[in-house]
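Run log, item B.
One chain of 205 residues. Sequence copied directly from the ordering sheet:
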Amino acid sequence: MRVLGFLTAFFVFSGGVVMAADEPAYTVVQRQGDMEIRDYGPMIIAEVQVRGDREQAGSLGFRPLADYIFGNNAPRQSIEMTEPVTTRRGQSIEMTAPVTARSAGENVWAVAFIMPAEWTMETLPRPNNPAVNIREVETRRMAVVEYRGRRTASRVDQHEAELRAWMTANNFEPAGEAVYASFSPPWTPVPLRRHEVMIEVRSAR
């Protein structure tokens, strides 16, 4: 029950999850208040597509992804979890934050767990569930806004609008859909809960 409760922290909201786990490495290129431009290196994700609204996406996508990292893979092995921020899953796969979700069409969301950097496409266990897709994501430059507190639909929309306005003002062209991420387990005091909206940057105009 302890493990299950801890993993519940990985509640993704159209892009949002999560707990204080290890995060993908990035370099801050530019910062202005709560806005940042970050460079992320290549990474591997486990991803599923689900149908529903943005609020439903995280819970619908979480189960098959958690099932994968907890051992529904080949080969099957016990999973060790450490607290407070890391989890070892299926064949000792460590869990990193954030779990993300992005729009893949009308009422379709791609929900993803980011794999730890030490894993490769060759060494990651193969999912037994064909709905779970393991794929590589190339190097990206992301515009990001961080905020704290409750993650309501209105607050997410507000911060996304603010990020897009800041990008326009600074001549950054969006290159994809917004990604929503949260990094706090449910027991975190509401004012301290951390969330982000992220949008890939194509180029400066």
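Observations after the first pass:
- Confidence is low (pLDDT under 50) at residues 1-20, 77-92.
- The chain is about 20% helix and 40% strand.
Flagged for discussion on Thursday.
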